[in-house]
Amino acid sequence: MESGDAKISLDQLAEEVRRCQRCGLGKARTRAVPGEGPANAEIVFIGEAPGYHEDRQGRPFVGPAGLLLEELLALIRLRRNDVYIANVIKCRPPMNRDPLPTEIAACQDYLDRQLLALRPLVIVTLGRFSMARYFPNQSISRIHGSPRRGESVVYYPVYHPAAALHQPSLKQALEADFRKLPVILEEARSAGKALPEVEIPPEQLRLL
Ligand code: URA
Predict the structure, then answer these.
(1) Which atom of ligand 1 is found nearest the CA of 65?
(2) Quick check: CB of 87 below 6 Å from ligand 1?
(3) What percent of the chain has pLDDT over 90?
(4) Is the CB of 45 under 6 A from ligand 1?
(5) What does pLDDT average to over the chain?
(6) Helix or strand or coil: residue 78?
(7) How far apart are CA 68 and CA 145, in angstroms?
(8) How far apart are CA 34 and CA 157, in angstroms?
(9) Residues forming a β-bridge with 44
(10) What's the pTM?
């Protein structure tokens, strides 16, 4: 898919998310938070769920955790406009409680379709909820900073920036894990060149 087509389908998806009433969070939210970033982003960051600031602004990672994410990106000479930022669920759970399994299930296909449109080289999972999508039954303290190669993408689990805000040891771990990202991306680029273009099956194309 050309990046222009991906942009159109990402914009359409965002509109769908803004109208979504698939679960109870649709009634409680101020704004849905579809995600944002360039359609040709090589790296996608996946957080957990919008918090207070994200719910007010309709944009991901714009509160204190977002400031830390921007600091971490700056360590490796990236800005937030260089990457795509999304969440497992697109609406804020009341009082920032953990997302419920039913809410995660209701929202799942939005993120699936975003990833299908973006086709990134690296997916960085921020925290345990997004990690659980790709590393089920694993513990973040054990696997953070260890990339796993999928068929056409590398999955890279790291701690959630919000967890690191008040815990210096987690912040150090997060910084060390971010510093490894450029090499992981470079390897994913080289592996991507070696792979043949993957055909998207027609039944998945219909979802885009
Ligand atoms: N925490 C998240 O997981 N996502 C956001 O968008 C903001 C904070």
Answers:
(1) 8
(2) yes
(3) 87
(4) no
(5) 93
(6) coil
(7) 17
(8) 21
(9) 84, 123
(10) 0.91
